[in-house]
Amino acid sequence: MEGDRLMDWKTLLACITGSVEEQLLLRNEYVVEENRILRNQIAGRVQLTDAERQTLAAIGKKLGKQALEEVATIVKPDTILAWHRQLVAQKFDGSAQRKSVGRPRVDKEIEDLVMQMAKENRGWGYDPDNSTLLDVP
Fold it and tell me: Residue 84's pLDDT is what?
């Protein structure tokens, strides 16, 4: 009796799993074919946003190159995997630790003061005649 019950559960689980897997395969097959049809109706290149590229790259990496060759229609599998490599490189490029690029900004008040002094004292600043170095033996 116990063995029959265990066998019934295993059989039932196998049937359900097989049915779900078959349904998923049919859905995937439909979506792939629908994408091919739509792609054939579009002339030229499909313009993707960065977010769309990131999404395709993340899913494409999980699928792998072989599966992408069967499914990908708007870009080549190598391109999708290259996008993923760029995403990983960006993640570890240290940009999260950088606060800002370049030299810190000067306060507007100081900038205005320097500009005022420069306008009032036109003789200050760079003089090409006096800036040459003397040859000292």
Answer: 92
